[in-house]
């Protein structure tokens, strides 16, 4: 399966959730996973470098940087070699994100409730409609990330996402939790970081188990 983390906003947690999903598949389910960093900011690549030093080379997955149309042209070959491919894209409607979406099975779009604006959803819907002309099998999923425990923002954003046509809202929010940045700073996933944050792990498992049911 080919999963693309994207959207048209920065800082919503695309890379963070993508990296934890890589570990869920590679470490948890023992899949052979390829992580493609398709963002020029290279956050996933930096994380992998930290991980390499923390774990002494035992990454548990393969990471490469590919951008632009090469994502599409290389995919037939890469698809044969890996169980799952995760593509992390930047926070804009880029050539890389479009190339990735033309070959993807699942498009995962996190939303940060506090910075939510309805235009972002509308723009994402337009992008999906365009991509579906060439890739009708694409499934687009939204979920909340960095949500608060109790907040009207969560509810308002969730309602807007639920009502958005052509996109499926997964009601498995990830709350705002310190362990995400603590773990990432060491090149570790939330599943691996000690002391373990069981609440965060449970939230990730609930979301990811729902995502892999799409296969
Ligand atoms: N659930 C979360 N709880 C707390 N912090 C988070 C969470 N998800 C992401 N972050 C933090 O938010 C910031 C932006 O995340 P990042 O994954 O880089 O976003 P994007 O890739 O969408 O630009 C990072 O500092 C990251 O540690
Ligand atoms: Mg990112």
Automatic annotation (TrEMBL):
<feature type="domain" description="CobQ/CobB/MinD/ParA nucleotide binding">
    <location>
        <begin position="6"/>
        <end position="189"/>
    </location>
</feature>
<dbReference type="InterPro" id="IPR002586">
    <property type="entry name" value="CobQ/CobB/MinD/ParA_Nub-bd_dom"/>
</dbReference>
<protein>
    <submittedName>
        <fullName>Chromosome partitioning protein</fullName>
    </submittedName>
</protein>
<dbReference type="InterPro" id="IPR050678">
    <property type="entry name" value="DNA_Partitioning_ATPase"/>
</dbReference>
<dbReference type="InterPro" id="IPR027417">
    <property type="entry name" value="P-loop_NTPase"/>
</dbReference>
<dbReference type="Pfam" id="PF01656">
    <property type="entry name" value="CbiA"/>
</dbReference>
